[in-house]
Amino acid sequence: MLNKNKVIVGMSGGVDSTVAAYELKRLGYEVIGVNMRLWQDDFLEDAHLLKDGGCCSLSSVEDARRVCEQIGIPFYALDFKAVFKETVVDYFIEAYKNGETPNPCIACNKHVKFEALLEKAHQLGAYYVATGHYADIKFDETLNRYVVEKAKAVEKDQTYALYNLTQDQLKHILMPLARFTSKEEVRQIAAQFDVQMSQKSDSQEICFVPDQDYVGFLKRNAEYDIVPGKFVDGEGNLLGEHQGIVNYTVGQRKGLGITFGKPMYVVDIDPDLNRVVLGENEAVFKTELWANEVNFILMDRLDGPYRCEAKIRYSAKPAPCLIEQHGDRVHVTFDTPQRAVTPGQAVVFYKDQYLVGGGTIIRK
Prior knowledge:
The chain has 364 residues and is of the alpha/beta class.
């Protein structure tokens, strides 16, 4: 029998997860803090690049342990390295091989934080898991289903990375930071019991690539060679030689290693022919895309054309569009052209404040 007053909080040792745990204890929940050990990179540890920072850093366990003691809740460090490697790191490596630009945080949320951690929570008798995400989960009686709303702290809203959540998962997830209107409010709460932790900066990099050298990471961990190939234009005419498709992403201008007398951008990546297609700025804009691995939160599936807004990257502004479901794929038509529609990234749909769902952008 699961205890509805018991909640497992994923603790990174950072501000957001710490305040999430503090808030839940203040509300009367039986809270257990869990630090998820996700990855170990001997190369970076030898180079002292994992000393500070995100959830894969050497200091994260001790930071999480310390704040749990200050809050007054039990703490455990649990090993999730195997599932993280299989569902996040291996996916990340394979995506670059396929000419895609992956989003490992979305994969981690789907497979690790809200599948593996939830399973562990149930094993420990807890009904809920909680995280420091900025988003709001509610039960809508009219729809008779759980919904996800944008955070009140608009600049910190993280719903883009949560579109994969299922109805069964949503009923077991708490996100106590939903009530805050700014990150500064959260820092003020944290400063009440840990000034040092409250001043931590937000992590901006991929947690298992803290030096931000993802090509170096691929060279150390991928089981494929990074092979030079050809730059071509939209008609297939040879423009030069590239240093391997993993070095490039759609929309990129800098770092091509070759000059043309005018700005040129990555328009497409063809892994089958090991080619990178270049073009001028206007060639980077598209009004349509296809997505697969689709999940909807507001409904089970679309029953016809649906007007909403969509974001093609975390930092993008939602853009008006029409979406239509075709089997297990969705076709998206934007009202205005969007820059750098990138295979491997997520397209996420919104209706007013609600998260509708999303999918992975594919090369048709």
